[in-house]
Amino acid sequence: MSSKGKKRVVLPTRPEPPSVEQILKDIRSTQPSDPMFVLIAESSKDLPAPRKKEESEVKSERLYQQSHSYVEMNQRLQTACSLLKEKCEELKQAGATLEQNIVEIKEKAL
């Protein structure tokens, strides 16, 4: 049988998503034995215990200092790159001038 002979199934329209109030009501009415809560509790057992506040602050400060250092170094590299491009152009111009002077001297010598 060809595909043209088959009837196309019309799916029902998608329902509207629940409102915030409906979601909150649903969460509040769930039981602690709800599979989702059981899964969350089981998966949290596999996670490392939360660290002390001081440890997380030290880590945050270290990450901030690394990021700050990276940004400063990136800015210095961009400045150096711009300076190198300028110097490169100056050298190209000096080389062209030198080539022109060499040609003029050769012409005068002949």
Order of helices and strands: HHH
The mean pLDDT is 84
Strand element count: 0
Amount of beta strand: under 5%
Structural class: mainly alpha
Keywords: Coiled coil
Family: Belongs to the UPF0449 family.
Protein name: Kynurenine--oxoglutarate transaminase 3
Pfam families: UPF0449
What does this structure look like?
The protein is mainly alpha-helical and 110 residues long. The protein has one domain (20-109). The chain has 3 helices and no strands. The longest helix has 57 residues, at 53-109.
Task: Give keywords.
elongated, 3 helices, mainly alpha, 110 residues
Task: List strands and helices in order, with pairings.
Layout: H1 20-28, H2 35-46, H3 53-109
Describe what is shown at a glance.
Pfam families: UPF0449 (PF15136). By secondary structure, the chain is mainly α.
